[in-house]
């Protein structure tokens, strides 16, 4: 995990007009940056900047895929499952639930679903 976001960081990320649709699109299935740009109506540089921010807080993961011609390309999948924001006299706190990202955790989750 890179860095756990503060509640303020998380609210700022989720307030971004491009980060939200990127997360939604990447939740349905892994997608390339080009596919995410088309789904979100954003330019590729904008999508890459948001992907960097989302990856910084482990809200999205990058995987390398191989196409039919043997070329490598990246796909992105949201790891964010749920966010809980709490407020008390000390301020805001955030609790983030994520999908497992390593192969062993994904296999365990798949096995438990069977």
Automatic annotation (TrEMBL):
CDD domains: HTH_ARSR. Gene3D superfamilies: Winged helix-like DNA-binding domain superfamily/Winged helix DNA-binding domain. Pfam families: HTH_20. This is Transcriptional regulator.
């Amino acid at each position: 995990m890179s860095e756990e976001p503060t509640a303020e960081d998380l609210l700022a990320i989720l307030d971004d007009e491009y980060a939200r649709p990127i997360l939604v699109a990447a939740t349905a299935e892994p997608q390339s940056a080009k596919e995410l740009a088309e789904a979100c109506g954003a330019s590729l540089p904008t999508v890459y900047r948001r992907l960097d921010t989302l990856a910084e807080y482990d809200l999205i993961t990058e995987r390398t895929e191989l196409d039919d011609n043997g070329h490598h390309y990246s796909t992105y999948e949201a790891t964010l499952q749920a966010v809980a924001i709490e407020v008390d006299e000390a301020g805001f706190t955030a609790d983030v639930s994520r999908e497992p990202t390593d192969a062993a955790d994904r296999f365990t989750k798949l096995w438990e679903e069977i």
